[in-house]
Amino acid sequence: MIPYLPDLAERPVPRYTSYPTAAQFGSGVGAVEQRAALIRIAPGTAVSLYLHIPYCRQICWYCGCNTGAVRDEMTREGRLSAYVQALHAEIETVAPLMRGRVTGIQFGGGSPNSMPAAALCGIITDLWQQFDVAADAEIGVELDPRGLDGGYIASLAAVGVNRLSLGVQTLAPHVQAAINRIQPLGMIADAVRAARANGIAGINFDLMYGLPLQTNADLADTIAKALTLAPDRVAVFGYAHMPAMIARQRMIADAELPDAETRFTQSALAHAAFTEGGYVAIGFDHFARPDDPMAIAAAAGTLHRNFQGYATHPGEATIGLGATAISQFDDLIVQNDKHVAGWRNTVLAGGLAGVRGVARTADDRARGRIIERLLCDGFVDVGDDYPPAIEALRSYADAGLIRLEAGAVRLMPGGWPYARLIAAAFDAHFDGARHSKAI
Ligand code: SF4
């Protein structure tokens, strides 16, 4: 039984895909620090690459990503080919600077499949040629099922893509209409079939709760239909409504949104449906089949968090390529220019495009490790080092959400939905503002 604690569920808190979080990024960090961090990567160090494609064919009203729509074919072709050319230039600059071994590559956005297959495959081929990519590297691409065909997926498989992440979100037609994302189940089933026929074994689905006009029955029906396609992993995110910061979300009326208690019920409903469906709950928002590498990593205590959420590959650094992409090193987090024109001009001139970020102190690294282990393992041993944090957690222990053991914090099963709030006790920068609700 997961307790509903309204005061906690409504509280804004970071997602902790990094520590410090993006709220602490400033302009004191940029390309100079980025170059030094790339050069410091020791030979053979496991590294992940993240490539950001900030374009979509159509914009979904709920989306908080840095992306834009290019509807006109001619304009789209021109913009995308300019973007692809700049990505190749950035790869050419970054690859010789760092000596790590690439164990994971992820394409996100936006919609990577807003690009023609030949362009996307050309970038992947370039990565294989210019970086030391491990033969068994996980190469994943986020795809918008709309407009996707089997030939596109076959092309990706041919250049080594072995994991696809499909944005499913909801299968209720009236909710799809309310979020400007119409995609019938058959479209997603076709993509899954094509992926499996081409030997792509790893299929992820992203689902959402808390969407406009979404009822509990809508969510249950979406999950039941998703289960018929047997995805290997599922992420279930709560819609974060922040129209003051994200203009496109103003298309969603506040009055159409489920209230806080319904959001909580929907989150619990998803948890029950997937675990009863044979999936292992991973962290606070993922589910995986027991034989999926993510479930295996979670059981082994080797799960990680990075800017894509939960991750299995042991990247000691993540290198972001593309406008707005974030690179994370042990002692530095740095974000590329989010303006496509600025990023493109810099990388075409042979420069690095980092413009903001944060240097990670020894204290940041220690707190970051604690937060990561809590959110991945539900357990962390902090010894005697953080008395104020332990004190702040006593009320969570009293509520039965955690157990405080000698020098350690253990999440109880009912505590997982509140995991980010519990982790926030170790966040020395957290000011409570500019974040989405805990649930
Ligand atoms: S949700 Fe995906 S497809 Fe929709 S606008 Fe955002 S990035 Fe584009």
How many individual helices?
A: 15
Q: Low-confidence parts lasting 5 or more residues at pLDDT below 50?
A: none
Beta-strand level of the residues, as a percent range?
Answer: 15-25%
CATH architecture of the largest domain: Alpha-Beta Horseshoe
Largest sheet: 9 strands, mixed
Name the bound molecules. iron/sulfur cluster
Structure, explained:
The chain is α/β, with parallel strands linked by helices and 439 residues long. It folds into 2 domains: 1-19 and 361-430, Arc Repressor Mutant, subunit A (Orthogonal Bundle); 20-321, tm_1862 like domain (pyruvate-formate lyase- activating enzyme, Alpha-Beta Horseshoe), CATH 3.80.30. Helix content is 36%, strand content 22%. It contains 15 helices and 19 strands. It has helices spanning 6-9, 31-40, 73-94, 117-130, 150-158, 173-179, 185-197, 216-228, 260-276, 293-300, 340-348, 362-377, 387-392, 394-398, 419-423, and strands at residues 46-53, 55-56, 68-69, 101-109, 132-143, 163-169, 202-209, 233-238, 280-282, 286-288, 304-306, 309-311, 317-321, 326-329, 332-336, 354-359, 379-381, 402-405, 408-411. Strands 9-10-8-7-6-5-4-1-13 form a 9-stranded mixed beta sheet, with helices on both faces. A hairpin with a 2-residue loop joins strand 18 and strand 19 (408-411). It is globular, with a radius of gyration of 21 Å. The protein starts with 5 loop residues before the first helix and ends in a 16-residue tail after the last helix. The model has no long low-confidence stretch (mean pLDDT 94). Iron/sulfur cluster (SF4) binds next to loops. Residues 56, 59-60, 63, 65, 67, 109-111, 144, 167 line the site of iron/sulfur cluster.
